[in-house]
Amino acid sequence: MTDTSLQGKKVAFLVATEGIEQVELTAPWKAVQEAGGQPVLISTKAGQVQAFDHLDKGDTFDVDVVVDDASPSEYAALVLPGGVANPDALRTSLSAVKFVGQFAASTRPIAAICHAPWTLVEADVLKGRRMTSWPSLQTDLRNAGAEWVDEEVVVDLSGPGPLITSRNPDDLPAFTKALVEAIA
Q1: What contacts 162, CB < 8 A, 6 or more positions away?
Q2: Is residue 114 annotated as part of the catalytic site, yes or no?
Q3: Which residue among 6, 66, 97, 130 is least packed, with the fewest CB closer than 10 Å?
Q4: pLDDT at residue number 2
Q5: pLDDT greater than 60 at residue 118
Q6: What number is the average pLDDT over the span 67-91?
Q7: CATH architecture assigned to 10-183
Q8: What whole-number distance in Å separates Cα of residue 11 and Cα of residue 179?
Q9: Is the dihedral of CA 160, 180, 175, 88 positive or negative?
Q10: What is each CA distance from 148 to 29, 70, 118, in whole angstroms?
Q11: Where does residue 64 rank: exposed (0-12), middle (13-18), buried (19+ CB within 10 A)?
């Protein structure tokens, strides 16, 4: 039996042009597809983005929409994959930070894994939120007003929309399950 719980729902995957941790892009992407949703790759520039397997180059992926042309209202959820360089570059893009801020003001879910919460820090949307991340971000997240915890997956329902966070690729099964449930 095919899961169609996300049938007809578009899910935004926002990334920089390089430095994306590949599995943190592909595993949630696959989960959205398998649930009948339509993942959409949004980036700061047209063309392709370069993913990585830790520090080694991975695959490239075609960009569907440039963030300047994207409207948060078109998407049922926002996924922010990690990788160290990806969110660090993404948070320097005014358009990307604005997109994230607008999305966070809605009631729709945001899912961020590993280093991805750096972009949420820049968008100033973490006050009072409970979350996790790669451990080295905990001071940044606390300074941004979040309660940081060391857990496999955290689903915080205290904001306008659900915030789903995980620490690293080992947490992807729980992360993708929580993502699909939050969108459905």
Answers
A1: 109, 110, 155, 156, 182
A2: yes
A3: 66
A4: 60
A5: yes
A6: 97
A7: 3-Layer(aba) Sandwich (3.40)
A8: 10
A9: negative
A10: 26, 30, 13
A11: middle
The pLDDT of residue 26 is 98
Q: How confident is the model at residue 47 (pLDDT cuts 50, 70, 90)?
A: very high
**What single letter denotes the amino acid at residue 86?**
N
The CB-side HSE value for 18 (13 A sphere, CA atoms) comes to 5
Contacts of 43 (CB under 8 A, 6+ apart): 14, 15, 16, 17, 49, 63, 66, 67
Angle at 31 between CA 61 and CA 163, to 5 degrees: 95
pLDDT for res 5: 83
pLDDT of residue 46: 98
Q: What is the pLDDT of residue 4?
A: 72
Percent of the chain at pLDDT > 70 equals 98
Of the residues 32, 42, 78, 114, only one is catalytic, namely 114
Q: Please name which of 131, 111, 117, 127 lies closest in space to residue 83, comparing C-alpha atoms.
A: 117
Residue-wise pLDDT for 81-94, tens only, equals: 999 999 999 999 99
Q: In whole angstroms, what is the distance from residue 46 CA to residue 130 CA? A: 34
Tokens of 147: 């309660």
- Distance between CA atoms of 116 and 62, rounded to whole angstroms? 20
